[in-house]
Request: fold
Amino acid sequence: MTILVLTLALAAGAFLAGLLGALTGLGGGVVIVPLLTLGFGIDFRYAVGASLVAVIATSSGAAAAYMREGYTNMRVGMFLEIATTVGAVLGAYLASQVSSSALAVVFGVVLIYSAWTASRPRAEHPALAPDPLAVRLRLDSSYPTPAGPHRYLVQRVPLGFSLMFVAGTLSGLLGIGSGAVKVLAMDQVMGLPFKVSTTTSNFMIGVTAAASAGVYLQRGYIDPGIAMPVMLGVLAGATVGATLLVRARPRVLRLVFSVVVFALAIEMIYHGATGRI
Amino acid sequence: MAQPAGSEGGPPSSWGDERVELALANVLRAGVMLAASLVLIGGVIYLSRHGGGRPDYGRFVAEPGTLNHPIRVLRAALAGESLGIIQLGVLVLIVTPVLRVAFSLVAFARERDRTYVALTALVLGILLLSLLGVLP
Reply:
């Protein structure tokens, strides 16, 4: 295989990942690493570097579209960013201390969790009483609806903050957006409405990934030859996906994608456990 | 519904004034477009020169002194090296979320929200330290 052929194949794979990621709302990042390592035999470290670049591309691309809708809660986002950026730098540091085989196993476990989350319907948990910390930090807010602003309260701030630290660490360790853990923290724990948690988490994914990207760059994990087709492919795929589907998320597609992600997870764990990655 | 001063929520915009948000959305879009263009241009040059070569990514090789620091990347890109141009595009992409944080800092400062100015400055500091390669 020549460099040209590999580049075109990577771009095609990344396009598909970006397309499916946008259509299912899972993000393209989760399948980039399995695609590169299992599909193309690329070293795990180059794969996580390229994946992280893809994660930032989709986050910033989507953010420009979300921006004016007024759903993003900047205070919640910025407060939790402290946990995710510190976690991301720690994760990026740990990534160089742990063997690729062990990382592949951890990656597989996170993938299974992501697939499981994506296959289940999300449930809203509106708060009944204000959280004193949320009040002090002025996290409670509202978002626009056709019937006027809808107030919401933010709950269990310390637990949400701790989970975000975990999400940041996983992001830095594995070069992913950790969307599934962020959704867990924001939907299930902090009780944010979907529209708010989706847009705020998208903002946070880009910032978190940028925090580990600096460390990745310095380590040489971001190889321009691989990052080029992956970034362009994912961007094109995510753009097409967003055009195909403005709001709704097809349930069947989500389920199929979850099964694919689950299968990739098993493959990653198997290859990691047998030392092939 | 009544909003406390400086709090977000409610149309027409979630925080600050709408012009800041609109400007930010344009900056993000422009950042992604610029990044993609640089990567594409660098990629075309790279493939036209080295497309027929054999890729070697099966094993990670940490080469000291290569495209791993913003200054070196910029120097390589200005020298017209194809991989340097690609990497500069990647850097522009990495900087777009950082710009968004910097914009938020300005917005919180305009609202005179000291707590969030401090929190945002901390996040921005971590990002810059990481990008400049000061962190481990």
